[in-house]
Design brief:
two-stranded antiparallel ribbon; alpha+beta; Aminopeptidase
């Protein structure tokens, strides 16, 4: 994959152990974990770096899968994804999407999505999926966001993930009418982007104490992206 330049940002594939280490260090800062954020899936993934000059401002990793192999994905540790084994087409898992805590430029997210779009098209992926994280493990803080997800963004029944994690939060049962302003303020930016393209989520959040997050399984069927949005993404990806 050749480097992609968008504005003042360059998006390129990690090519060395040093590149991977920089990504892991940024992930550690973003997730605020005590130990270096590294796991066995790192060796299985393509890692993308978003740089501004010599500064690493964002990173993410991508794993291409046959639907029959979805049990080997990172997300499958936390969700029962057996229904997706019948999904019609290649899958790409996107994970560890982190932006440097001191960077707040929305163009960073746009630049990263441009690179992701190019890879999804190259492998003819039909589903992009991953875990979308909310900081902290108290679901009360995100009550309106979860109620909004329950009302409008649940996964289609044929693909809906089941429960696997030992501690989860059911945000569908008893969901109240959400305050959409509060919901929008607490939805993670990455998840907002997924939803704007027609993405959907699991019916529960996983409580992940190791990462100090609540996360929901998130899927985006490529064929369901609105045509105008798909054209824009492909134009930006070059």
């Amino acid at each position: 994959m050749p480097p992609l330049i968008r504005g003042r940002y360059t998006i390129r594939r990690a090519e060395s152990a040093g590149d991977l280490r920089r990504a892991q260090q940024l992930r550690t800062r973003a997730f605020d974990t005590a130990e270096l954020d590294a796991d066995g899936h790192d060796a299985l993934c393509t890692h993308l770096l978003v740089e501004e000059g010599a500064d690493l401002v964002a990173c993410l990793r991508l794993m291409t899968l046959d639907p029959r192999d979805i049990a080997s994905s990172y997300s499958a540790q936390f969700y029962d994804l057996s229904r997706l084994e019948a999904f019609p087409g290649p899958l790409v898992e996107m994970g560890r999407f982190c932006i440097a805590p001191d960077r707040h430029d929305p163009d960073i997210l746009r630049a990263a999505w441009a690179a992701v779009t190019g890879l999804v098209d190259r492998v003819s992926a039909q589903l992009l999926f991953g875990c979308s994280s909310f900081r902290g493990t108290d679901p009360v803080r995100y009550a309106h966001a979860f109620a909004a997800l329950a009302r409008s963004h649940l996964a289609p029944e044929p693909w809906r993930p089941g429960i696997r994690a030992p501690e989860t939060h059911d945000f569908v049962t008893g969901a109240a009418e959400p305050d959409m302003r509060q919901a929008a303020q607490t939805l993670p930016p990455l998840l907002r982007t997924y939803l704007a393209m027609g993405g959907w989520v699991s019916d529960h959040a996983v409580v992940d104490h190791a990462m100090n997050t609540l996360h929901v399984f998130t899927g985006l069927e490529i064929a369901r992206i609105p045509p105008a949005r798909a054209r824009l993404l492909r134009a930006v990806s070059g």
